[in-house]
Design goal:
There is one protein chain. The chain is mainly alpha-helical and 120 residues long. It has 2 domains: 41 residues, no CATH class; 59 residues, DNA polymerase, domain 1, CATH 1.10.150. It has a two-stranded antiparallel sheet. Helix 1 crosses helix 2 and helix 1 packs antiparallel against helix 3.
């Protein structure tokens, strides 16, 4: 439990955007010994950095642009999920929304896939 800290606002971001934020912080604070403020990165911090470097499929600007375009068809949370996973066909896209309420028509899903194909 953290005393004196509270969440003021939340906003879903893509893994690509998270990588951009983390790398900016690492570059700002890390010295030549891979230390921040005189301490080595923690195990969890190193895991997070490795994860975002491995799974970010786009650069942050492209990810933001694609999310904005997908919001014509999906909610922000759904668009972020789709950009993080970059499904390649209708079946994969339907699996992402399998637990969502409501159905998406094939035309909408195809439009989403067409947008994704522009960023591959």
């Amino acid at each position: 439990m953290m005393i004196g800290k509270k969440v003021i606002d939340t906003k879903p971001i893509t893994i690509s955007e998270a990588r951009e934020i983390l790398m900016k912080k690492v570059e700002e604070k890390a010295d030549e010994n891979n230390e921040v403020d005189g301490r080595q990165f923690t195990y969890e911090q190193n895991l997070t950095i490795d994860y975002v470097n491995k799974f970010a499929l786009l650069d942050a600007d492209d990810a933001r642009e694609l999310v904005a375009k997908l919001e014509d068809y999906l909610t922000t949370v759904q668009a972020v999920k789709v950009v993080d996973l970059m499904p390649e066909d209708l079946d994969d896209l339907r699996l992402i929304f399998a637990k969502e309420r409501g159905n998406f028509d094939t035309e909408t899903l195809q439009n989403v896939l067409d947008l994704l194909d522009q960023y591959r």
